[in-house]
Amino acid sequence: MTEVGRPRKRKEDARLLTGRTQWTDNLRQPGMLHVAFLRSPMAHARITRVDVSGARGLPGVVAAFGGQDLAGEQGSLPCAWPVTEDVIIPDHPPMAVSEVRYVGEAVACVVATDRYLAADALEAIEVDYEPLPAVIDLAEALAEGSPKVHEEGNKAYSMKITTGDIDAAFQDAPVVIDRTYVQQRLIGAAMEPRAVVATTDGDSFTLWSSTQIPHVLRVMLALTTGIPEHKLRVIAPDVGGGFGTKLQVTAEEVLCLLLTRRLGKPIKWNESRSEGNLTVHQGRGQIQHIRLAAEADGRIRGLQVDLLADMGAYLVLLTPGIPLLGATMFNAIYKMDAYEFGCTGVFTTKMPTDAYRGAGRPEATFGIERIMDELAAELNVDPLEVRRRNWIKHEEFPYTTISGLTYDSGNYEAATEKALSLFGYDKLRAEQSDRRDRGDPVQLGIGVSTFTEMCGLAPSKLLGAARFAAGGWEHGSVRMLPTGKVEVITGTSPHGQGHVTAWSQIVADALGVPFEDVAVVHGDTAISHKGLDTYGSRSLVVGGVAVLQACEKVREKARRLAAHALECSPEDLDFAEGAFTVRGTDSRRTIQELAFAAFTAHDLPDGVEPSLDSDATFDPDNYSFPHGTHLCAAEVDTETGLVKIRSYVAVDDIGKVVNPMIVEGQVHGGIAQGIAQALFEEAVYDAEGNLLTSTLADYLVPSAADLPDFTTDRTETPATSNPLGAKGVGEAGTIASTPAVVNAIVDALRPYGVQDITMPCTPERIWRAVEGARP
Amino acid sequence: MPRVTVTVDGITYQEEVEPRLLLVHLLRERLGKTGTPVGCDTSNCGACTVMLDGKSVKSCSVLAVQADGSDVVTIEGLGANGSMHPMQRAFHEEHALQCGYCTPGMVMAAIDLLRDTPEPSEEAIRQGLEGNLCRCTGYCNIVRAVRRGAQEMGQAVKSS
Predict the structure, then answer these.
(1) I want to staple A473 with a disulfide (CB 3.0 to 4.6 A). Which of A3, A109, A417, A619 is the partner?
(2) Per the UniProt record, which residue ranges are transmembrane (chain A) (predicted)?
(3) Do B37 and A664 touch (CB under 8 A)?
């Protein structure tokens, strides 16, 4: 029985379940000091004075600094995605020096012997601000005469891509749907707040951080701090969730390094949740103007998308590129003659935005899946029927879309059929009709989302063409240890995804060794010396494949060793269940025996080096394209505005599956986060730029009581862009579920004349929409 | 400074603490019991849940001095004789954790839930765990795990 495809229980769990964890905040170093940051209470202001002298001399205080004290060495936080030639990338000091541009920006710090004492001493620091106007609304920010976030203006960049004759598509179109949707700002709220520990021995530096990207971080810190790359080791120990929010080079990481360099002592910073809500990069933040032209039978002629994307106050690591990850995704699974995508990145005096689970694809999927429902309503046909008339048929793959991507595989019909039968679609439609006829105050809505997305954040050449600063390859190395056990080193950096278990399954099959005999090491640049880390649902489809290919090289080396030992030609050997057998005989060598022979190296064939190990770097030639059909039935109380999700069915096609248990868990969590956007969550800033949702009492991360059970299933159309046939699953649920839920709510309220509810669809908003639509 | 005596996972400690020191910081910073993490500062997330004299509390909402004379059990002290508690095992079996950060608190809260409701319905589990947030799992498998844990704990009681 093969390991790949089995629902193996996770190797990661025992440690996590018994509290033997290595969260960054658990780390202690001899002589370690704690830093606390004083943060701006103003969204936009000139700093006229910072006086830290009151903090110096207080109990336990070792040092206190303002931005001016660090100005000469702190550099500028990096943006690695200059999306256009003329994109404005403003200077971004980790600690503000002369001006603050969002509430929460660090303006001073205290280093003390204890975290309580460091926090106490912050109160003795005096900062004078000269207030400047906040810039909150995206359209107003672009208007003539708007206050400026940066001297260069409020427009970070603007770009437009057109394919096909967009004017012709709209001219005389029988149907034109024109909508504006708002993608609210979200806070990722990984359960582990950020933490950093930095140490130095006077020459080299080690940085532990709650990060998704130890490898990328090392490169970027070397580029921005002047610490030579070979003298900097970055370690991501146990990391408690990320969802894109820990795909960042943060001010706090840079400042902890600078402080340990200055003071020669280990420095620790741990973030409070309310500090994190203010200063962890946020997600989404778009106003989407979408126009769709269609024939009278619902076939799409053209799609026009114009985005205003909220950059926040600065461009951090990937800020300007996030909305552009949706540029090739608004057209989704649909065929059309013409497509136009435009995007303007807008500076505001709010926390910068960047990747959050799905990163650009949820926004795009929401836009297209919402407007497909509007098209169906306009034509008075079933929302699935209008999709069927437009989607790429399974026999048409590979298919090059209007936006230029080539979808290698997919079967939208199969996923939809399976979802329909699990959901009981016709029965629910009948109930909906009945409730409408009865004028039931609790209406039933059915939401559809037939989504696709692009995963991998590879190939490198496509990322380069998109002006992304890094590549998209991934590295794995596999070594058979002398005793026959296997050590795998991966360049991916898991923080809940279960790579240790899944990679063990891949290796167990490829080398014919027991699952239990495989160890997987990750997250330390001194050990895992090459990698590009974990985001964009890339780990399995790029990193897992690199591990597989390293195994294949190990196996081929073992074959030469076996041929030498058994005195035959390598071609005469069969490999099965971890042993090479001379075809037609019972002469054999196990891979463990060969590993020991390679270790002793007493009798190796000419030209074969000792040790049975190898490595591989994989860079696929295309993205992968997971897809699926999600269906949501929601009861909407028209008298209270309360939404109850009655059932939720997700059928995902993520290609070949390594561990179905882990996959199901990823889908569950993804759906929950997408539902959270639809119903509960929003980072709310007031007109002065104060964040009104700075705690988990205000920012409503759903609990178990707020969510239903989910029914999940899969269809399996293998990807052709990697030898595993896998497509990626980390973000699919989040991408698919938000429009499914909002479509269900709008479907329930359609008879009341409601066409949209702005997210999050709170009871108040729904109640107001219903009341507003009443005659 | 006040002196507190507190038993944590079977070991009795005497510590001099500032009155403002939170129980969770006593556990983590002074006693090295880092198995109990901190996830928020408004007692919303429940990651720091421990048993205080047999009842679950959010240890970020209890002062160390309030725990004077008390018996605290953390996730580190839950298993017996080197094996996991049935609820810990159930979380493993049902894949009820991903990143694992909420897990210590979630397991403690689940055990406490069963004190009052030994055979909870799905609805009772969901309501009972309302004070503990998980960002990874979507809660489906946590609900399944609590159900399985309840069954195994019920069996454990019956067979003992």
Answers:
(1) A619
(2) none
(3) no
